[in-house]
Specification:
Blueprint lengths: L7 H10 L7 H4 L8 H18 L2 H5 L5 E5 L3 E7 L8 E6 L2 E6 L4 E6 L9 E5 L2 E7 L9 E4 L3
Antiparallel strand pairs: 1-2, 2-7, 3-4, 3-8, 4-5, 6-7
Protein name: ArsA HSP20-like domain-containing protein
InterPro entries: ArsA_HSP20-like (IPR040612), HSP20-like_chaperone (IPR008978)
Pfam families: ArsA_HSP20
Length: 152
């Protein structure tokens, strides 16, 4: 019976070396032949995807994609999974057609670009690890100020 790793890093290391293969070897070696620019540029993206797939806990969920749905009555519903967060630690700010979501505990911040301009009278709720924000669309932004949205 294997004992559970004491720290997230140990869990990450155990996952990374469980297969016995070095998942990152190709990134350590220098190319010996001419390599195209697109291949060189794709390497950092491949490396990050591979790292995030193996990474522990909060890192895996840090980039969960928001769901933006257009609803009747010119409303937008934005849902963003924030596992492990608590309502009192989540702050939502509206600026023109962008929603800024920050978590006070993890210091993570997300900027979500909305498909249209919205009114500053928005509501936000946090339940079961998901943030739900309801916004009202308008034809053009009313102002360029930042508006805090209270999370309930």
């Amino acid at each position: 019976m294997n004992a559970a790793p004491a720290e997230p890093f140990e869990e990450f290391r155990a996952k990374m070396f469980a297969t016995g293969a070095d998942e990152f070897a190709e990134f350590r070696s220098q190319p010996t032949t001419a390599t195209s620019t697109s291949t060189l540029l794709s390497k950092p993206r491949q490396l990050m995807r591979r790292f995030l797939r193996l990474a522990p806990g909060p890192i895996q969920y840090a980039r969960a994609a928001p769901v933006i749905e257009e609803a009747p009555h010119d409303e937008l519903h934005v849902t963003l999974p924030l596992p492990g967060a608590h309502a009192e630690d989540v702050h939502v700010t509206l600026h023109a057609a962008e929603l800024l979501v920050s978590n006070e505990v993890t210091h993570a911040t997300r900027t979500i670009t909305l498909p249209s301009a919205v009114l500053p009278d928005a509501s936000a709720a946090f339940k079961d690890g998901k943030l739900s924000v309801t916004l009202h669309k308008c034809s053009s932004p009313l102002d360029n100020d930042m508006h805090s949205i209270m999370v309930r």
